[in-house]
Automatic annotation (TrEMBL):
It holds the Pfam family UDPG_MGDP_dh_N. GO terms for biological process: polysaccharide biosynthetic process; UDP-glucuronate biosynthetic process. Substrate binds at residues 200, 245-249, 253, 316, 417. SMART domains: UDPG_MGDP_dh_C. This is UDP-glucose 6-dehydrogenase. Belongs to the UDP-glucose/GDP-mannose dehydrogenase family. GO terms for molecular function: NAD binding; UDP-glucose 6-dehydrogenase activity.
């Protein structure tokens, strides 16, 4: 099939290379600068496996790039919209990028018969888009086909999803969608558009709620001297609950959870419904970093001028995305307390915010620091020579924001003088001999 994809962010570019890999003829459309980068075979987002697949598709010749709507859609059987739908300050979803696509379609006077919306949109949006296109004389079926891929494992998630959801109103569009996804082995759920739109929000907010639940329990564990890892293991082995997204830590970040949660709260307000579970989810998450900073400061006599090493800048491992990263909240609070922040991240080499020095290695970051906070669970952080890290520090305080250091490593560190290990949802561990500063 001939498919045109508008928007080459995480979802758009991953869909483009994966659908090309499945054998479709794909044209991806975006701004000129992005298109130029992709044409010269350079992936503009960092995602494991993406560059390799992009090179392969470029060599095969069934992936093309275009910055012009009329030529990009000229012979397309389907148009897939994957542009951004950020949340505005008032909590409503900003649909301007989708509206812009519609305007361009109307101006070109040409619209493929199937319009697939992959951008996350509030319930009812696809109905409005279809009415809008029909009103302009463009006879297209609008379907909603949510994307559930995670950054850091996006290609794998696209190719091997748990399920595929088609929110469509006609048998014809369902048949076309099935053709597009032929080759992917996953259960397909066909439902009405409004339900499909809500499935996406309900999935993301449910996952966020699981994380906040684990974080709430972690606070309780700290108060009672229990171990959150054991508690969540015992809870998650119940198949009705499942083990995933119960990892307590510094709170969820990224471009989706907070945005979708706010957007769903607003959708509730619009029809006069409050959604208290979601309000609590957001509140718990908002408190994670401030609580961590309070813990840190309580370990120092005076935070002013202390040096903090931060391991991990992106919102999760295997991505260079810093949108809504807990690191940014930490940085702001550190600036407020005049704490000098030195950070290290395997892929984020610079940060567009003041008040942070990005180090070239974790050891350089650790040198002369008065504490280290581990923010993201990159596998290479677990493998560090932690004895060396601690020996480089001025004051050996480790806050393990993701509970990733093994019990063996922690036991080894406790053999040294003056080490304080502060995990999440577990008792603090200190070496017998504490240095006095
Ligand atoms: C999420 C959804 O998982 C995905 O289905 C949707 O398409 C987009 O939003 P993503 O934001 O890429 O994906 O990352 P995800 O792996 O879900 O993690 C989100 C945040 O939650 C990260 O900050 C992560 O560190 C945090 N998290 C995740 C936890 O704190 N604990 C957990 O147990 C799991």
């Amino acid at each position: 099939m001939q498919i045109t994809i508008i928007g080459t962010g995480y979802v758009g570019i991953v869909a483009a290379v994966c659908l090309a890999k499945l054998g479709h003829n794909v044209t991806a459309m975006d701004r000129e600068s992005v298109i130029q980068s992709l044409q010269s075979n350079k992936a503009h987002v960092w995602e494991p496996g993406l560059q390799e697949l992009l090179t392969e598709c470029n060599e095969e010749g069934n992936l093309h790039f275009d910055a012009d709507m009329a030529s990009a859609t000229a012979n397309a059987d389907a148009l897939l919209i994957a542009v951004g739908t950020p949340t505005r300050a008032d909590g409503h979803t900003d649909l301007s990028q989708i509206e812009n696509v519609l305007e361009q379609l109307k101006q070109s006077g040409n619209c493929p018969p199937l319009v697939i919306v992959k951008s996350t949109v509030p319930v009812g949006t696809c109905d409005e888009l279809e009415a809008n296109l029909h009103g302009a004389g463009l006879r297209a079926d609008v379907v909603f086909n949510p994307e559930f891929l995670r950054q850091g494992s996006a290609i794998n998630d696209f190719m091997y999803p748990d399920r595929i959801v088609f929110g469509c109103q006609s048998r014809h569009s369902e048949i076309m969608l099935r053709q597009i996804y032929q080759g992917i082995d996953a259960p397909i759920q066909v439902c009405d558009r409004r339900s499909a739109e809500l499935i996406k929000y309900a999935s993301n907010t449910f996952l966020a709620m699981k994380i906040s639940f684990a974080n709430m329990m972690a606070d309780l564990c700290e108060g009672y001297g229990a171990d959150i890892r054991q508690v969540m293991k015992g809870v998650g082995t119940d198949r009705r609950i499942g083990p995933h997204f119960l990892q307590a830590g510094v709170g969820y970040g990224g471009s989706c959870f907070s945005k979708d949660l706010q957007s769903l709260l607003t959708s509730g307000k619009v029809i006069g419904r409050s959604l208290p579970l979601l309000e609590a989810t957001a509140q718990i998450n908002d408190q994670r970093i401030p609580q961590l900073v309070v813990k840190l400061i309580s370990l120092w006599e005076n935070p002013n001028g202390k040096r903090l090493g931060v391991l991990g800048i992106s919102f999760k491992p295997n991505t260079n995305d810093v949108r809504d990263a807990p690191f940014l909240t930490l940085l702001k609070l550190c600036q407020h307390h005049r704490i000098d922040v030195h950070a290290y991240d395997p892929v984020v080499q610079q940060v567009a915010f003041e008040g942070v020095t990005v180090a070239d290695s974790p050891y350089e970051m650790a040198a002369h620091s008065d504490a280290i906070i581990l923010m993201t669970e990159w596998p290479q952080f677990v493998e560090l020579d932690w004895v060396r890290m601690v020996q480089l520090m001025r004051q050996s305080i480790l806050l393990d924001g993701r509970n990733v250091l093994s019990d063996e490593v922690v036991a080894q560190l406790m053999e040294l003088d003056g080490v304080t290990y502060v995990p999440v949802g577990r008792p603090v561990e200190q070496s017998v001999e504490q240095r006095v500063y």
